[in-house]
Structure formats: structure tokens, C-alpha cells
Amino acid sequence: MKVGFLVNPIAGIGGRVGLKGSDNVEDEAVKRGGKSVSPARAKEAISGLVTHLGSSLKKLDFVTCSGAMGEKELRGAGVAKNQIEVVCETPSHSSAKDTERASAKFLEMKVDLVLFCGGDGTARDIVRIIDNKIPVIGIPAGVKMHSGVFCVRPEALAALLREHLEGRVDTGDAEILDLDEEEYRRGNWSVRLFATAKTLLEPTLVQTGKMMVEEVADDAVKLEMIEHIKELMMMEPECLFLLGPGSTIAFIAQGLGFDKTLLGIDAAAGGKMIGKNLDEKGILSLLKRFRVSKLVVSPIGAQGFILGRGNLEVSPEVVRKIGITNIMVLATPSKLRVTPTLRVDTGDADLDSEFARRAYLPVVVGYRMMKMHPLQV
Q1: Angle between helices 218-235 and 247-255 (to 10 degrees)
Q2: Run of H or E including 176
Q3: Which of 90, 91, 93 is nearest to 103 (CA)?
Q4: In terms of Cα–Cα distance, which of 2, 6, 208, 1 is closest to 115?
Q5: CA distance 150 to 119
């Protein structure tokens, strides 16, 4: 099988510094101390292939780009030199145009699968060129990953390709969602269906597209959640509450009288807001001031992610300081019905294993009402 392999070297660079993506903000992200996560995530995924596919790895030939857009990660992960063909020379400072140029080369080379490391923006740039002619699979490394073509975690790639090589995974259609990052940074969620792409269909290894879920009864349930959180804040006035992104948490925050950012991490304590749109450093600074803290999040509809998608400011260090038992998951019953499992992808294997050992997490579904919901890592 011939695999076109591509890495977006700056994917995820804006996540922990609160920039909501990497499009057109690379310099600002670097200035704030942002670091790209894609090289390490790509190497992790390919190393898993080398380790777990064994002799089956010889069935794969990679065509890729020079340097940090693919060749470096393949060689660093231990893929044999005779299985790597560099078909596209790329500059040290790459752009979306280089992704498109590489994608055109993959079409020309008649690859069987395009494997990339990045986020929704990278998926969009690839599919703009290859359309739905070749199946696409993404190694998740961006800030926003709403499209239905990403492995649930980098380590899932090995199992997915093994199943595919053995003929047990079919291809099918998935949505590529295009989010306007400029509007996103202003707090506006402007998402549209950009294209339909082919991908590998395996629901435990490949995430579904983000689903917006709303029922008439949901507002009544959210009002109950407001009372639940208000009561907790009154009982624990010295506790720091970190409020995650998304419309569910924004609705609840508004009901509490807080002017919350829709897509940022905000902080409240003692009945008032004390921080808005915090990056990782800002969160860690606040955590030093409070003995007890809680993180309030809501899963992405259908995908189930509570960490690792759209909230990279909540880094592994932040999660450890808060403590897994102090993470509060809120979801309406209608959202849970279409979200069979909760997921985390923190980028830290040990921390993800701690979550995995729990198997279930409590989810607040109303006033003093909780449901134990499956957790899959």
C-alpha cells in the first residue's frame, strides 16, 4: 500500500497560548511561547506503526515531503530508508500552499491513502486538492479538530492501519468542517461543511464529526445545572472554578451572572469572574493562589472529547494540579444520547492512562443529578 504522508509543522502552536488555532498567527504564537505539537504527535503515531505492525509494516511504502513536513518524522520513528520516497521538496518555513502542492503530488503518484498530522485546517487544504478521490486519515495535532477523519489518538493509527491492511475496515464518507479562525478568536463559532472526504470507517479508532445537539427540553435541564453549580460555588467560596469552552458552559455561566467568553477558558471564585480567555500560563498562575480548584467542561457532541479538542490551554500540567476527581463534566441527556463514550487526548500517555483506569466518569445531567458515563481512551 502506498501512503502519502504529510506533517503540518506548526499545527497546534496556538493552543496552549490561547490563540484558538495556527492560521495566520504563527509569529504571535511563538512570541507568546507557543510550541508546535505536530512533530511529536506524528513521530508517536509512526513509532506505533513500527512497533505494532511488525512484518506487516513492509506492506507500506511512504511518499512524503522533505524535512519537517514528513521525512524527518518517518526517519526518526524508525521507518526503513527503502520505504521512504521524498517526492516534494519543501521550504524550512512551510505554508498551506506547500500542503496543497504535496497533495497534488500524492494524486499524481496514485497513493492509496493520505495520512497527515495536523488539524481541521490541514484537512481542508488537502481535501481541496484531492477531493474525495483518496481516503484521508489524520493524526490529531491541531487546536480544533471537528472533522470526522481523525484518529481518536495518535496510538490508534497502528490498530487502524492493521485492520485496514487485513481487510476489516471499509472506506466511507466523512465531513470536513471548515471553521473561520478569525471569527473563532472573536468568540464566534462559524462552522460550515467544507467538503465530504473518503476516510476509514472504524468508530472506536476514528472520531465522528462534531454534532450540534439541541432539544427544547435542554434549556430546562441547563437551568437545573445553573442551580447545581451556583450551590457548589456558595458552598466552596474559596474554590477556583475554571469554566471551559462551548455553548453549554457559556449558557450556565450567563445564568450565574458571568460574562463568559464562548470559546475560552475563564475563571471564577467567590461569586465573581477573576480571569477571562486564559492561556496555560494564566491558568497555572491562578492555580498557585487556590488550594482547591475545579474544571467545568462539556463533551463535544457525538465525539465525546472533554480534553484535547479546542481546550489545549488545559495542559497535562494543569490537569494534574487540578486533579482528575475535580473535573466536572456537564451534559444534557440529549447530548449524552448521541455521545456513547467520553474521550480524552491530553498528549500525555501516563495521564491518559490514569483516565483510562477509571472506565467511567460522573456527568452532571441536572440539579444534583449525575450519570456514570463510559470513558474510552
Answers
A1: 60
A2: strand 170-179
A3: 90
A4: 6
A5: 8
Count Cβ neighbours within 10 Å for each residue of 185-211 and write b for 16 or more, e otherwise: beeeeebeebbebbbbebeebbbbbbe
Q: Is the pLDDT of residue 232 over 70?
A: yes
Residues 158-198: tens digit of each pLDDT: 999 999 999 999 899 998 987 666 666 566 656 678 889 99
Q: How far apart are CA 112 and CA 99, in angstroms?
A: 18
The C-alpha cell at 82 is 527503502
Helices (H), the chain: 26-31, 38-53, 71-77, 96-109, 120-130, 156-165, 181-185, 218-235, 247-255, 280-287, 316-322, 333-337, 349-358
pLDDT digits (tens, 9 = 90+) for 343-370: 999 999 999 999 999 999 999 998 888 9
Distance CA 100, CA 127 (A): 9
Fill in the amino acid letter for 157: L
Cα torsion 155, 158, 89, 128 to 10°: value is -90
Terminal-to-terminal C-alpha distance of the chain: 28
- Torsion angles phi and psi, residue 267, rounded to 5: -130, 145
Contact between residue 53 and residue 83 where contact means Cβ atoms under 8 Å apart: no
Exposure string over 258-289, b if 16+ CB within 10 A, otherwise e: bebbbbbbbbbbeeebebbbbbbebbeebbee
